[in-house]
Amino acid sequence: MSRKPPTMADIAKAIGVSPMTVSRAFKSDSSVSQETREAILRAAEDLGYVFDSTAANLRSQKTDFVAVTIPSINNANFAETVRQLSDGLSRRGLQILLGYTNYDILEEERLVEQLLRRKPQAIVVTGGRHTPRARKLLSNAGIPVVETWDLPEQPIGHVVGFSNTLAIGEMVRHFADAGYRRIAFIGGDADNDTRGTERRAGFVAAMQAAGLDASRLIACGAPPIGMREGAVAMAHLLQSLPDTEAAICVSDLSAFGALTECQRRGIRVPQDMALGGFGNYDIGAICVPTLTTINAFAGDIGAKTAELIGDVLEGRFEPGLPQTIRFTPVLIGRESSR
Amino acid sequence: MSRKPPTMADIAKAIGVSPMTVSRAFKSDSSVSQETREAILRAAEDLGYVFDSTAANLRSQKTDFVAVTIPSINNANFAETVRQLSDGLSRRGLQILLGYTNYDILEEERLVEQLLRRKPQAIVVTGGRHTPRARKLLSNAGIPVVETWDLPEQPIGHVVGFSNTLAIGEMVRHFADAGYRRIAFIGGDADNDTRGTERRAGFVAAMQAAGLDASRLIACGAPPIGMREGAVAMAHLLQSLPDTEAAICVSDLSAFGALTECQRRGIRVPQDMALGGFGNYDIGAICVPTLTTINAFAGDIGAKTAELIGDVLEGRFEPGLPQTIRFTPVLIGRESSR
DNA sequence: AATCATCATGTTATCGTTACCAGCCCCACT
DNA sequence: AGTGGGGCTGGTAACGATAACATGATGATT
């Protein structure tokens, strides 16, 4: 029963052809006569043959893997990026090899090394901050590298991202234009949360540019920052700076958490406290009141990255000429800031 | 510059040892003298050597991959299962190879076939419904198979799951005991949503067992069923069956959507309409009012599956003796059903 | 002193597929 | 009839690591 699984050679023997012909029969473009191919595929099915990619990968020096690292899978934004990336790549015959860094660049380094051993055709990392060793590994890997979700100052290779700083600036202006003055920022205090700290820095810069006090900063600690952290932060805010008129949160999740805290305390949103989020999560479009947010195009980042990788691998670009694709975050004004 | 990457043979030559010794130097348990190993590792670093798993995989017939299929990555429940699974496996030196079926068993079949070509050491699938061909592929793969999130009547191999039917029965009883009589069910009408339909069937059975009318069934269509679908369904429910006292939703997401619709219409929850969800999502614990739900132990399913796979692969079980690990879903009573 | 286990290393063959290079047959054109 | 090209097939070697077995040196044991 449990003999070892059949190989192409077994099929070849059964049909009376060479293994080479069997190999060809499995590739759609190669030249094999119709009847031979059918006989081979039938025999393969009969024998319960399963193609062995590991051997093919070794011989052809192609794995059709694309390595991807994200901070966390439990985040709708990153998940959406991965989904679109995965869809786009699978359409091109590529398969994702996914790893989580847990928002830790040391973990990222380990992960990158581990993933590179699998000989992916390209690698996508989230963010532009890496350990020196990770940078070196990526640079020397000899495959296309794409950094996403940020616009690194010194990109390793390609980039598909947007400016978190600018995006938050947009949000600050939105509130300032609406007449809010005492505006707080929630989150972005942990230095392993690069996007969060960028947003916080962007908040401070934009507030100062608008001539407003930028000192209302509420800490949430290390990522992931979810709804609960947002609620806790709002409680702090209401206690420490009760005259605050508006709070800009590091993400829609924390904004929603902040909203629930207001609801529990009978604080009306937006009349007593206006709220802004980030990321255009589903929840912000449906909760009551709906949340003003920033669409950072998480899905499009994934889709565009897939397209870019396809183009590069199929030689549609000058090789060695890194591309930077920049998305412009768009503010979505909703009920929480009217 | 772009010569081809160094191999173990190159390191061997540089150090003056055999390739075999180099190979051994990279495995922690093998016997290589301290100094030789150090010299090898140093040379490897100098040359920018990256271990080639594809070759090792072929020769040793071990990939250290575990294939996993889930319906969707954009679902906090499945994501949590995958996270714990991934953590547990990586602790054992195994790496996940993930694929999404989009709630489609035909897509699952394609995916399973594709994943098996990569020669994983084990495969985890979500749910117990598969195409005949997929069943055959899984059975003949010669590796441990784990079905999760359900309790299939005819398991292919191992199972780590719970009874959706029983879980919803629990929920129905909770509402019935609290005095609710006109109870509706939202979702679970699409037949590619196996867990959803099971929950709906469980609802009908439990309602009948309680002597209650089980005909208040609101359709949501095909999965994924999110917040928006829940809101739409609640609108339908309020229009078609306005005297309904309580609604049990196929998940916390749809329950939250239903809640928002109530809020927009000024319908008090739970006074005018009680709500129940499923899955113990973060949102249900924090929204106002908090949602009564069922903890299905999504994370534990992943953790336990990782443990099971570890045990099986390391021969800690009678081989060929499939295990079934059954979780008992627990009702969490919250504000939405007081 | 002889024997044997242990350690560190080397040699050889192989995992299953495919790149590369031929070779054959048949038909279409000169 | 001769030449050429395209379609189909086969033989051989190789991808880069390691399993399996073998070897020499060292030290422990009797």
What does this structure look like?
With 338 residues, chain A is of the alpha/beta class. Chain A folds into three domains: 8-51, lambda repressor-like DNA-binding domains (434 Repressor (Amino-terminal Domain)), CATH 1.10.260.40; 62-163 and 298-329, Response regulator (Rossmann fold, 3-Layer(aba) Sandwich); 164-295 and 333-337, Rossmann fold. Chain A is 46% helix and 14% strand. In chain A, β3, α7 and β4 (145-148) form a beta-alpha-beta unit. In chain A, α5 packs parallel to α13. Chains A and B meet through α4, α5, β2, α6 and α10 of A and α4, α5, β2, α6 and α10 of B. The first copy, chain A, binds a DNA duplex (30 and 30 nucleotides) through α2 and α4.
The helical percent of chain A reads 40-55%
Q: What would you call the shape of chain A?
A: elongated
Assembly of the depicted chains:
homodimer
Q: Write down the overall mean pLDDT of chain A.
A: 95
- The structural domain count of chain A equals 3
Considering residues with a beta carbon less than 8 A from a beta carbon on another chain, report the largest interface and each chain's count: A-B, 52 and 52 residues
Q: Helix/strand/pairing class of chain A, anyone?
A: alpha/beta
Strand content of chain A: 5-15%
Distance between the termini of chain A: 71 Å
Largest sheet of chain A: 6 strands, parallel
The count of DSSP E runs of length 2 or more, i.e. the number of strands of chain A, is 12
Q: Low-confidence parts of chain A, pLDDT < 50 over ≥5 residues?
A: none
CATH architecture of the largest domain in chain A: 3-Layer(aba) Sandwich
Q: Which strand order does the major sheet of chain A show?
A: 2-1-3-4-5-11
Indicate the CATH class of the largest domain in chain A: Alpha Beta
CATH topology of the largest domain in chain A: Rossmann fold
Tally of separate helices of chain A: 13
Radius of gyration of chain A: 25 Å
The fourth-level CATH homologous superfamily of the largest domain in chain A is Response regulator
